[in-house]
Structures are given as C-alpha cells and as structure tokens.
Amino acid sequence: MSTKTRKPRRGLGYSVEEIHRKSGSRYRAYVWDAVAQRKKSVPASDGSKTFEYYEQAEAAAKVLRQWIDGTYTNAGLPVQRQSRRYSFEEYAALWLTTQGGTAATRRARKYGVNTLNKTFGKRMLDELTETDFKAWDAAEQARGMSTSIRQQRIWVLRAMMQQAQKDGVRPDNPAADVWVKAHRLRPPRYLTLQELYVLLAFAPMWFWPAILLGYFVGLRAGEIAGLRWERLDLDSADPHVLVSDVMEPGRTLRTFPKGEEAKPVALPPVVVNALKVLRKWRGSVDREDFVFLNTLGKPIDSDYPNKVLTKTWKRSGLPGQRPVFHHLRHNTGNNLAEADAPAPVIMAVLRHKSLATSQKYIKDVNTRRQQAWMARAHEIAGMPNAEVLSFPAHRDWADAPKQTVAS
C-alpha cells in the first residue's frame, strides 16, 4: 500500500513526519544523534516505528533526545555527550516554528529573523557574543536605521537567545544587555525650505520627485522604492497616490504597506507636476513599471533612498545634522499642523494607526506658537509707554506689615 509522507514538523534536535495512509494518518519520529552523526528512528512502545498521534511521537522523541544528549560514564567518570551545534540560521528556523501570537506578530518576528540571518546566519550559535550584537546594532544605527526598527529586531534577537539558553544550545544569553537607547526627548528633524531647494538642485534628475513625495506627502523609503505608475493618478481632477506596495530590503515587493491597508493620499500640485516631468523624461512607461529606477534601469530597494539622500547632502555642502529620508516625512506632519489641519487629517495623510501619534505634530506647533506669543508679549511689556513698577531701594521689606487674605 502506497503512502505519502507530509512535510515534517521540526523541533530542537528532532522531527516528526506525518504518514498519510488510506487507513488513517500515522506519525514517525527521528532524533539526531550527534555522537554517531546520523538520524536515529524513535521506537514506539509496541516495538513499531510509527505512532497513532503526533503528541505521542513528539513526547517519545524528546525522551530519546534527552537520553542521547545526556551524560554517560566512561571508566566511572561522567562525560557530557557532544550535543549538536546549530548555526544561527538553523536554530532561528526551528525557533520560529515554536512561537505563537497573532499573524502580525508572527510576520514581524519572521522579518526580524530574515534580517538577522543576513549578518549572523552562517555563524555558529554558541560562538556569538554580546560584542558581536552591539557592533551590529551600532552599524545599523550608523546606516540610518530608525530606533523603532532596531528595537524590534533586538526584541526578536533577545527572545531567541533566551530560548537557546533554556534549550541548552548556549550557556548564556549574550543579548540580555543589548538595548536601544531611545532619545525620546530629541526633537524631530525638520528641513527648511532653503535646505529643500538646495537638495533638489543637487539631487539626480530621477530622484528629486522622490524627495518631494517624502516632504509633501509623507511616503516612507520602502513605499518610494515600491511605488509603481499604476498607483498614481496624475491626470484626474483629484490627483492621488494609492500607497499599496512596499519594497523589502531584499528587493521583495510586498503588496501591502505598513498597516496592511492600502490608502489613497492626495497629491499637491508641486508633486503632480514633478511626477509628470519624470514620466515625460522616462518616455513610454508601463503602468506596472516602478516609478523610481536606478542608473541601470532596475528597481531600487528600501535602503537606496537613504543612500541617494546622503550623497546629495554631502554634494550640496549644507551644514548641520544630516537628515535621513524618514525626516522628510516629519516635515509633512509639521507642514499640515502649521496649516491648522486637524489631527484626523494628519492621521489620514501619514497613515498612522494611533491618533496620539498625529497629535504630537500639533502639540509641537502649539508650543512654538506659545513661545512666539510669549516673546511678543515681552516685547510689548518692554516698550517705553508700558507701565513698569519699581521698588524703592530704601524700603526695608522685613518691617512691612503682613497682609491678610479674607477667607
């Protein structure tokens, strides 16, 4: 009787396969023997090699794995068996299969693991140290990665290293003291109109519409990289962009933006005209073509806008703090708040999930307006015709009669 073996479900050092038969499903378990360097079949209690339930196969595999990776005596001395060593990528794949949570949490955890694999994937898990993780985080910060993304990746790294310590794959957790210092009191970086005009003058011909999309519309770097012509409506009475595609760092196009909901955003006339100029400069464009292509005519990834903006800033010779592409998005919220736009409008344009995130721009503008009005009030108080009270220098205030306040 022919059988079909389904994809095995793996654990740490063992795997369970489902065998589909006409009489019903059975399960077969295997354990990796690091001493013999081969896969060992797990026997059932009745002497067969299959189990009726998955839970039985998994429990028997864990018992056998514990026995294989346990201790044995040699000439009366306890000797620790050589357990299997895992690479970072191998253990990360096993760790993902044991994690639960919502779909969004699992997806964020998977994206974090994929990014970490690019740096640590081929290295052995027990060789990684706290210095390696801190050096990687410092390189990400120097590359312009935002604090929130770094926090999310370190959260994934810390959880995985904690589980590796519990599984006995590592003696310690080297990511326990790796933290991202969030400067929450640091004011957002806003570009002045003069800085914007200088950047546009020194930016490549194909890139300056991207700067305008970030400054006036609030598109993120990944949304710029994944933008296609079919998402733009430039010729109607209400021009807008449908934010529906995001380019991942590995040049993988996601068909949903941050928040997993495609939302239209209105385009101001300056952005519409810039995109029309770019479309005319490109010549004939297909609706499925990417709007922004590199010098080789290929799609860009989400890191590319930051790289081009950095080169443009250095080429312009502007002084001060170098902005990253996400800072252009802050200008969109600030400009709307300066124009007295309500928080729901800012929330819709920037596609925030929380209204409190949009209200911070209004709070910043209100604080600046208070300071301006306070400065104006001080100017009025300092005018010659303002009444100013002066205290007599010879008065001894210690002998002054005490005033009582009527209750």
CATH class of the largest domain: Mainly Alpha
Largest sheet: 5 strands, antiparallel
End-to-end gap? 100 Å
Q: CATH H level of the largest domain: which superfamily?
A: Intergrase catalytic core
Structure summary, number of beta strands:
12
Query: What's the pLDDT, averaged over the residues?
Result: 84
Low-confidence stretches: none
Helicity range: 40-55%
* CATH architecture label of the largest domain: Orthogonal Bundle
Rg calculated over all Cα atoms: 31 Å
Strand percentage:
5-15%
Overall 3D form: elongated
- Structural class call reads alpha+beta
Could you tell me the CATH topology label of the largest domain. Answer: hpI Integrase, Chain A
Count, helices: 13
Q: SSE string, helix = H, strand = E?
A: EEEEEHEEHHHHHHHEEEEEHHHHH
Oligomer: single chain
Number of domains: 3
